[in-house]
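Appendix B: a complete holo record

For completeness, this appendix reproduces one full record from the ligand-bound portion of the collection. The bound molecule is pyridoxal-5'-phosphate. The inputs are the chain sequence and the ligand SMILES; the output is the full three-dimensional arrangement of the complex, encoded as structure tokens. No fields have been trimmed.
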Amino acid sequence: MPNLPEKLTGLQAYDPITGSYAVRLDANESYFDLPSVLKAKIADRIEELDFNRYPDPLANETIQAFAAYYGTHANLVTAANGSDELLSLLINCFLAKGSKLVTVSHDFSMYRFYAALSEVETVVVPKTAQLQIDVNALIAACRDADAVIFSNPCNPTSLGLPRNEVIRLLESVSCLVIVDEAYMDFWDESVMDLVTKYENLIVLRTCSKAIGLAAVRMGFAVANPYLTGLLRAAKSPYNCDGVSQAIAATVLRETSLLEQCRTEIIMQTQRLYTAVAELVKRYPSILECVYPTRTNFVFIKTAYAREIFESLAKAGIAVRCFADGLRICAGNRREQTLLLSALEQILQPIG
Ligand SMILES: *Cc1c(COP(=O)(O)O)cnc(C)c1O
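The structure of the chain with pyridoxal-5'-phosphate bound, as generated:
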């Protein structure tokens, strides 16, 4: 065996739920596939592609479409192979071995994963009993840290930190502040417009959730021109392939379709929240609570997470299991009906 660093020992490949499930509510994807007219438009674009040529290293057309849709400027945007690549890049290149990264818990597991790989020290600030970010504790932890990262709205809790609280954090710390807004399409408290005001702010967005392009791998960092210049310089030159660039650019221009999907998903999520809140009322000894959601999923606090997760899996329904709860993506009307009747059947005998 070659001599490899210790940080690699025990590392496991990311293992999303595999197998065939009739209903997939585990990965927070959009439940809308692209309409066939749009797929045909994409097919035409791909047919025109010069497959023998390297793609545009900055994905200019795509960042312009992104900037137009979100009301920002392309010169503040860096495109990447999913926001996962940006997380890796930021933690790898903007921090060094031994740097301190502040995270919160619960939050997206990938932050700690990349930090461990880069031998960056993570300081985990626990959330309040209501699973909200404790901004005062976060500010205190940032005092001797190099960066802080959190998702807003949060995966997996579905809760949002209001914009004025994020601003309070920005006003109080000098380290790099990375706000992962993967689900901000479902809420309205973005700080993307503040990247030129705060020199330490980086906002991450993705096409994997509300935009419905999880298959394509396209994520964006929005930051001031200085940080953007560094990100563009540090990334690998052709990080976004030509096919993904063409698809994302095409879809991001479909503003009325995107608005329609976004509104519909928010409505379906509220519908799921209401139905689950009803179950919480009826089975209080099993389901502790469901949190008000600002995302496209709900988080149910329950000591029976593992049991319910396994019973749902047997019924062909995939959700995400945590030690203290279940994260369930909204899904369409039919999927929601299947989920709710399966939940009913599982809860009845236990309750
Ligand atoms: C889904 C998700 C992402 C998106 O990752 P991609 O690599 O763009 O698919 C980023 N952050 C959070 C918190 C997420 O839940």
